[in-house]
């Protein structure tokens, strides 16, 4: 499996989403985790020792504006997106 990818995971603070976050981090990837609830994302980030490889971005993916902000964040912080996992339910 390729390493050092930039991965965006929607619904990252949920059950399946958080497992996917762990899997990509274990692979050495950078993860941009998004979910609608900032508090849940903060818990996710604080419970992982991923340093700058785990970036949180609260967003509602049903909002075109918030999706654009998420894409801009990925561009500004990582320069690209290699993998997008749509896990928001």
Give a written overview of the molecule:
By secondary structure, the chain is of the alpha/beta class. The chain has one domain: Rossmann fold (3-Layer(aba) Sandwich). The chain contains 3 helices and 4 strands, in the order βαβαβαβ. It has helices at residues 15-26, 38-46, 64-77, and strands at residues 6-10, 30-34, 54-56, 83-86. α1 (15-26) links the parallel β1 and β2. The mean pLDDT is 93.
The rounded Rg comes to 12 Å
Largest sheet features? 4 strands, parallel
Shape: globular
Helix-and-strand structural type = alpha/beta
Mean pLDDT comes to 93
By CATH, the architecture is named: 3-Layer(aba) Sandwich
Task: Report the CATH superfamily.
Answer: NAD(P)-binding Rossmann-like Domain
**Could you tell me the strand content as a percent range?**
15-25%
Number of strands: 4
Summarize the helices and strands and which ones pair or pack:
Elements lengths: L5 E5 L4 H12 L3 E5 L3 H9 L7 E3 L7 H14 L5 E4 L3
Parallel strand pairs: 1-2, 1-4, 2-3
Summarize the structure.
By secondary structure, this protein is an alpha/beta fold.
Properties at a glance:
89 residues; alpha/beta; Rossmann fold; 4-stranded parallel β-sheet
